[in-house]
Design a protein that fits this description.
The protein is of the alpha+beta class and 196 residues long. It has five helices and eleven strands; from the N terminus they run H-H-H-E-E-E-E-E-H-E-E-E-E-H-E-E.
């Protein structure tokens, strides 16, 4: 890209100055009224900008369960909309418990957070954290487990291998050991589509 076009900027500046000058000259007696109106419009503009900024902050800080975990079954497809955080989240019934997963095609299998593992009845003291995985945060120990059922809508899978993360994990990950059960994974128009 080139630098700024100074000729156009100069022309625009002169044009704005002429328009403002003509308005001020024709309305000399009404300058006080014009100043009040300009102040009102400035206040409205600042209020709208502040409201937009606050709304974006509210959307970013919503708890996971508030908007995440949506997804619907349409025929042989599971359609998952992209969430405000830019990721795809899906609610699944796992062993009769509802858990919200972050869909992660980079994870080789289902990775449960320790909190979700506890909800499913796995006791940390009884798990064998002998596996290791390399993550962005370094090496993490994992314990293998089996999930009796994983269900969304009328789509159900049985005896699915998963691991419990031994480190800090904010949300469980829905990895390829589950996603490979589908014939295709497609992303288009801010939706992830899993086809059986």
């Amino acid at each position: 890209m080139g630098g700024p076009d100074y000729a156009r900027l100069t022309y625009l500046g002169i044009l704005i100055a002429v328009i403002l000058g003509s308005v001020l000259m024709t309305r000399r007696g009404e300058l006080g009224k014009m100043a009040k109106q300009a102040g009102v419009w400035l206040f409205i503009f600042v209020a709208v900008i502040a409201a937009i900024g606050m709304w974006q902050d509210i959307r970013k800080t919503q708890p996971l369960g508030a908007t995440l975990g949506t997804g619907r079954v349409e025929g042989d497809k599971i359609i998952i909309p992209k969430q405000a955080d830019g990721h795809y989240h899906l609610s699944l019934q796992v062993n009769d418990q509802t858990l919200v997963f972050l869909v992660d095609t980079g994870a080789s299998q289902i990775v449960l957070s320790q909190q979700d593992a506890t909800e499913l009845g796995f006791k940390s003291a009884e798990l064998n954290f002998w596996m290791q995985a390399q993550t962005a945060n370094g090496t993490v120990r994992m314990a293998p487990v089996r999930l009796d059922t994983v269900t969304v809508g009328d789509v159900s899978a049985r005896n699915i291998q998963a691991v419990v993360n031994g480190g800090e994990l904010r949300q469980s990950l829905l990895g390829m050991s589950y996603l490979n059960l589908f014939s295709s994974i497609e992303i288009k128009q801010d939706r992830m589509i899993l086809t059986r």
